[in-house]
Hints:
eight-stranded parallel barrel, homodimer
Amino acid sequence: xxxxxxxxxxxxxxxxxxxxxxxxxxxxxxxxxxxxxxxxxxxxxxxxxxxxxxxxxxxxxxxxxxxxxxxxxxxxxxxxxxxxxxxxxxxxxxxxxxxxxxxxxxxxxxxxxxxxxxxxxxxxxxxxxxxxxxxxxxxxxxxxxxxxxxxxxxxxxxxxxxxxxxxxxxxxxxxxxxxxxxxxxxxxxxxxxxxxxxxxxxxxxxxxxxxxxxxxxxxxxxxxxxxxxxxxxxxxxxxxxxxxxxxxxxxxxxxxxxxxxxxxxxxxxxxxxxxxxxxxxxxxxxxxxxxxxxxxxxxxxxxxxxxxxxxxxxxxxxxxxxxxxxxxxxxxxxxxxxxxxxxxxxxxxxxxxxxxxxxxxxxxxxxxxxxxxxxxxxxxxxxxxxxxxxxxxxxxxxxxxxxxxxxxxxxxxxxxxxxxxxxxxxxxxxxxxxxxxxxxxxxxxxxxxxxxxxxxxxxxxxxxxxxxxxxxxxxxxxxxxxxxxxxxxxxxxxxxxxxxxxxxxxxxxxxxxxxxxxxxxxxxxxxxxxxxxxxxxxxxxxxxxxxxxxxxxxxxxxxxxxxxxxxxxxxxxxxxxxxxxxxxxxxxxxxxxxxxxxxxxxxxxxxxxxxxxxxxxxxxxxxxxxxxxxxxxxxxxxxxxxxxxxxxxxxxxxxxxxxxxxxxxxxxxxxxxxxxxxxxxxxxxxxxxxxxxxxxxxxxxxxxxxxxxxxxx
Amino acid sequence: xxxxxxxxxxxxxxxxxxxxxxxxxxxxxxxxxxxxxxxxxxxxxxxxxxxxxxxxxxxxxxxxxxxxxxxxxxxxxxxxxxxxxxxxxxxxxxxxxxxxxxxxxxxxxxxxxxxxxxxxxxxxxxxxxxxxxxxxxxxxxxxxxxxxxxxxxxxxxxxxxxxxxxxxxxxxxxxxxxxxxxxxxxxxxxxxxxxxxxxxxxxxxxxxxxxxxxxxxxxxxxxxxxxxxxxxxxxxxxxxxxxxxxxxxxxxxxxxxxxxxxxxxxxxxxxxxxxxxxxxxxxxxxxxxxxxxxxxxxxxxxxxxxxxxxxxxxxxxxxxxxxxxxxxxxxxxxxxxxxxxxxxxxxxxxxxxxxxxxxxxxxxxxxxxxxxxxxxxxxxxxxxxxxxxxxxxxxxxxxxxxxxxxxxxxxxxxxxxxxxxxxxxxxxxxxxxxxxxxxxxxxxxxxxxxxxxxxxxxxxxxxxxxxxxxxxxxxxxxxxxxxxxxxxxxxxxxxxxxxxxxxxxxxxxxxxxxxxxxxxxxxxxxxxxxxxxxxxxxxxxxxxxxxxxxxxxxxxxxxxxxxxxxxxxxxxxxxxxxxxxxxxxxxxxxxxxxxxxxxxxxxxxxxxxxxxxxxxxxxxxxxxxxxxxxxxxxxxxxxxxxxxxxxxxxxxxxxxxxxxxxxxxxxxxxxxxxxxxxxxxxxxxxxxxxxxxxxxxxxxxxxxxxxxxxxxx
Lengths: 713, 713
């Protein structure tokens, strides 16, 4: 009996590392007679797994009448048996939600229509959509449990320990999506959150967070008599600090509810199945950290992946994977790794809702190879092959062909070749499953920043977290990749972020930083660590309470954005001012013993300083928030890091910023990936240090392509 | 003495058609010693014109001290003489505003700093930025007039009638940009608008619009005692009909103010110069119709062009010209033509503020050729070549190199080749200046819709005008181009829109349509015209007063969007439901004698009907608002038009929706442009009817390229 395990490095089959390579085949759409053909084509492309939604609404069209009728389109049992026969592992995705452009997201009509009380509501208690459900509503849970009790036994027959190939079960789908994407907020269903109930979820959450109502009132600027009387802040765009605190609490409460929901589903599943990995697909990379609470609750059997789409229609921002998109994908995968998972894209685009703009072979292959360069260890193509929607169950189309590699009439489309190419690459390079990316810079990020967009608009803090995230991927990361750096991303909440005292630690910061993190940074500096913090110095802790531990240690003052746009930024002893495309932060206070490092050349206002601390420690505050636009920014980063004693060693050097070069190594060899994500051929020279000496190569990469070069080690 | 004229078809030099082919060389940045070299390189690339800003702040650094010092960087006179020597026409752009990433947009520091009262303000009377000026503020006008009085004599020496080559003068720059883009609204400076003053501009405007205060109060739901007491609606996002009406008035008032400003500048200029064409560059295509009032006031000496950027930084939505972008460019050029101008792009990207993401040769050339296919008659590259900013005048950078074709150290960059290629093409195809695009469909649009985004959020009208614009370029136009149609765009406010009774007229409509237009459509139908109106039937006139002339004639009822998202749409006798990626509109009323044509297959609600009117007239209402995503949508459009008697004749047929084929003809020949705006080579078959019979060709177009094919006529 085969056994699948995973860690942050890889998936393992009976202890042997492998790439998870999967494609979605919705059995309920593909005509039964074509099941085998489609599965075989998937396997032929090099896949080792198949994935499918199992829509509740399809199997239980009338309440209480669940059917998996043999020899019909509903014959899940037959499909799973066939998967085993063809030799593919299976990801079962029984919902409750599927999305998948199914009517009511795959929920039964009767559920959405007859039980309006289960709908998620906005903060005025108004439901905004019939299929956006309040996950923990008791009636929804009661009905959903019956569905799990019906579908799990069918799946259970086919799990690995029962001789089948079902190895993964996905719990629900892109949780939070139908709330956040539809009305831009969370679920406030009063019955679910137990508003104004002594033992309600929300009062309970607040009580465990604040202990006394006085503490809460003090924090909120309110005078509620007790926890059961607390109203949530009725805003998605807080405009005061008090509002922001209430909003932030609701955000964390939401993540706890989502975790409780996932745990509930996991328990229902666990009543039948204990030999499967329980997975979930975060809707986008930026949502990955929403599932930290879930990861804690579900423990080792849980595996989070992310969905990475670059084009689902002409209204999307681009038609193909751009460097800006891929930089976000990198960050998404690093966050998954930081959370303990092998970076996996559980929905990797192989088609699109419409047929235009097209998903081309070139784009698809380039996207996959770029993901591999950055450390992807698994992917599931969405979708590999589809077909007609069950009657009245489609929400966008009758024939859910999805411009997939295999069309709904068994046509083999040109981009099937891309799947084959990637499959062949993975097969021929199985050892790369355990490869590591060679890194040079160290950037420590706070997942709390990524997931808390609670001040979308700046409410006087100086920097919204959406802006900070933009700085991270368009500023720091694009600067790094264009400068052929390959940064290691560290979790600032873990001790390992502070282990290395010789390499500077780059810390993007807003006005908010957890108290413990501030203290750890102080300790790091005291021990001789080197810190580059930008663009702000924190002044509040994780509860948005005043906290200036770090600033006090450094002796720095308040940092605030310049009041005029497009300032210049000049650094002492550096050269000409730096192109900005961003904003500058100023401070009135040069810490005692610190040296002025950067300023606005027009007003001479202080925008950066450097300061030596104890035991050889050193800190630089750089009040600069940029989008990458020029090599001068790379040189600036290099210069600033060199002042922190950085040796400037890069894993790879490439002289063309439009070519991003990433080196991956195993014990025996190194593979260099050079990606060109533009529409024109690009040339450059790449060089790297090998045991055999420095090697330099002139390369030309065609438009939208990833070149791979091999080096023995 | 050469004479330059223009009409909607072309520019003419002494009556002979020519393409206006220009590049920006800011003389104040390019070192004096390099002026000749840069100008010559521009001419060598095939250009016939050079353009330059003349920054007020550069020439008048202290109030009253205007200098054009000979033999210095300020020697405008010398530069203009050199332009004539090299043999290039000149566009002078003396402001007052330049933008151009100059500090204070090129205005003098002393003006922006010492006269805060001239700043534009938000609707709370607060200024939002020191260089966003209230155009008609008396102090600003007083200072600006002195600048014009100083600079115009220098320019005047070099105009055509004085033996020089200055042929164009640009008045200000992207008017409205520093208001709308900075804070998202217009200028409400109380002194400029004369708030609460009996003869103030705003009271005066309202008086001329409403005549009596009772009429205004009735329309606004207010009770102001007289016009001098009327407050403007303090909102950019009206939420009630009354608010929308006040907002709409302020919008029109703004356009009048901008026109008055342009007319003022034109008069100042006219005191010195009468032999130049006065131009203005609209900031983006969607702003073109903002200048309708200006065009009326300035008359035949005025020429509006537009600025078309696809990438000014990594935070832009795409890095290269996409089909979605080019569809908007097409619409922009059609609007310019409708307004009486030869479609001209006065800032056509040849570089970018930063060097990344790059402007590549491939992208640039493809963008230019696509524009030519769609009817561009003139372009000015922004910028052709730059250099260091005058001291303390740069806002983004010291060296304004702009990644231009010729670098600030005289380097010749690879994309210079693209300029040469386009230059050669224009030179070898001078006859195409008079070429016409072969058209088939007819779409009548309302420029008022394009420029009135007053209900950004739908306030119960059923459709915001931003959404309608999106439907126009992502829905109708992308459907047309992907289906190898080449629509003629007509101005619905002109009688010519209603001349052709045999070809169906496609009219995209919101809930708002001018009374006269509604009446004209009724008359059109009465005479036997064929009308396709979508997605709404109008129910208000241009003042947002109830007006259902068209609906009453047809006997139709209210049209409103479906309450659930992603509905399906099915048409009688058509085939399977159509992929939507949009929304459906429903009505409760099937007009007497009309036939049900379209419906939502799940609820069966009526979403389209067809009705025969008088004298063979026929109308179809199609309650469908889509983004193009599938060929089914093209077939639907074809089907609907065929029911209106459309013969289905296309100028060109192309079987690959990813290749957009456009035919241009002169008296003697036809040129077919086939554009591929994706990152992968595309193939297809194009065919067209020529006098010699039907000709079909297999073609392959490389990624991001425009293929041209010649046919004799």
